[in-house]
Specification:
alpha+beta; six-stranded mixed beta sheet; five-stranded mixed beta sheet
Length: 176
């Protein structure tokens, strides 16, 4: 058989396989934000006033919309993957929602990521019996490429006030 025809045939078969099996090659998803080393130390976060109820309720892989649970209250993530970080933040002392937040990963080093609230969370308002908490939801699209492997405790810093307030989420993230 003619080598040119064999090459053409294999190229044709490969093209048919790509279209039939997936429609296109896998898409690379790029996160909108990346964690960076924080200016706050573990000790300064621990010394902050803690007010509010905050949660990191889910970490979802953007490319395939799958949850990344590890063990109870722990999420497991990998580098070079974009995620949706989903949760809520409230200031229970004021029965208010902070507009701006910083998600903090506290471990051997401390990392931060800026975000905003404003997503509708009627479940939060109902649970806390406070209609003012309806917009407590947040979603931050990010990756963990700059974070060293290890386990991190997650805090939300409420940054609207002159002095930031630390809000523990009682969740951890393990970066692999």
């Amino acid at each position: 058989m003619n080598p040119k025809k064999v090459t053409h045939f294999l190229t044709l078969i490969g093209s048919i396989y790509l279209v039939a099996c997936s429609g296109s090659p896998p898409e690379t998803v790029v996160a909108k934000q990346r964690f960076t080393v924080a200016s706050e130390s573990n000790h300064s976060i621990a010394a902050m006033k803690t007010v509010g109820t905050c949660s990191l309720e889910n970490i979802v892989t953007i490319a395939n919309n799958s949850t990344n649970f590890g063990t109870k209250n722990n999420y497991s993530v990998k580098k070079n993957i974009a995620y949706k970080l989903i949760g809520f933040a409230t200031n229970s002392e004021l029965s208010a929602v902070p507009k701006s937040i910083r998600m903090m990963l506290v471990g051997a080093e401390t990392y931060s990521l800026n975000g905003t609230t404003g997503l509708e969370r009627p479940d939060v308002a109902t649970f806390f019996k406070s209609p003012s908490l309806t917009t407590a939801g947040y979603q931050i699209d990010a990756d963990f490429n700059n974070v060293k492997p290890g386990e991190y405790v997650v805090f939300i810093l409420e940054t609207d006030a002159a002095t930031p307030i630390a809000c523990p989420t009682h969740q951890t993230v393990t970066v692999n």
